[in-house]
Write a structure and sequence with these properties.
- The chain is built from nine helices and eight strands.
- With about 250 residues, it is α/β, with parallel strands linked by helices.
- The protein has one domain: Luciferase-like domain (TIM Barrel).
- Strands 1, 2, 3, 4, 5, 6, 7 and 8 form an eight-stranded parallel beta sheet that branches.
- Helix 6 links the parallel strand 5 and strand 6.
Length: about 250
């Protein structure tokens, strides 16, 4: 969910995620609208067992030295935390920026897990060598299989891989999923929305068979990857709609 909703909403929904049987609860951070330290503190203070993931913090907006200093001394040094890092800028200097971020955050938060948002082979190799996990987004099933082979070939210490999966409930679900792809550059603006798995998300036409539809889409991706559901509400600022979607998609409801 968007970190821009603020610590109070993040803390409340993290608690709901734990109560609903989710294995993890994730939020994003987009500078300057979100404070990673305050959001992590809120999520961790309101939960006891669920993993808390941040995906991903763009290091061009949160310089590694400043980010490490802001998180040091708070609740974030916790084995439940999966701290996602990404370059956030252009290709120039991205590997060095992420490498510096991994080193500084590992020094500041030795008990937390560091994940890297990666897709290109060199970033995948860096993450496999230095991070604890990888976080993927907007990969087609074919692209995911290619990256999985890259990850396997790279070896290294990385223990897990997560993939964001967009999901929206009608009315307007397909347009919201497609709009998300366009806004992140995965599809060209003005292009007709793809169909099937090429849409890179699950469109729910009703509240029936939700988990079977999700499972069918997950099956196209590497079996060892862990899906992170990214609901796309019609009103992203409305916490009640988030609560409703959490309940609809909850593992306990399967």
């Amino acid at each position: 969910m968007p970190g821009a909703l603020g610590p109070k909403a993040i803390g409340s929904l993290a608690a709901l995620a734990e109560q609903s049987g989710y294995q993890s609860f994730w939020f994003n951070c987009v500078a300057p609208d979100a404070d990673p330290a305050a959001l992590l503190d809120a999520a961790l203070a309101n939960t006891k067992t669920v993993d808390v993931g941040v995906g991903v913090i763009p290091l061009h907006g949160y310089p590694p030295e400043t980010l490490a200093a802001s998180l040091h001394g708070g609740r974030a040094d916790d084995p439940r935390v999966v701290l996602g890092l990404g370059s956030g800028g252009g290709p120039r200097g991205s590997l060095a920026r992420v490498s510096d971020g991994i080193a500084r955050l590992r020094g500041a938060l030795p008990r937390a897990r560091i994940a890297v948002g990666a897709k290109r082979p060199r970033m995948v190799a860096l993450a496999a060598e230095a991070a604890d996990a990888l976080l993927f987004s907007m990969l087609t099933p074919d692209e995911a299989q290619v990256v999985a082979r890259q990850l396997h070939a790279a070896g290294g210490r990385v223990a897990s891989a997560y993939t964001y999966h967009r999901v929206a409930l009608d009315p307007g679900a397909r347009d919201r999923v497609h709009g998300e792809m366009v806004s992140h550059g995965a599809w060209p603006k003005g292009a007709e929305a793809p169909t099937g798995r090429d849409l890179l998300g699950t469109v729910l036409s009703s509240r029936s068979d939700v988990h079977s539809l999700l499972a069918a889409d997950f099956a196209a991706y590497p079996g060892e990857w862990l899906p992170v559901l990214r609901p796309l509400p019609s009103q992203p600022s409305e916490v009640d709609e988030w609560r409703d979607l959490f309940g609809l998609l909850a593992p306990a409801a399967r």
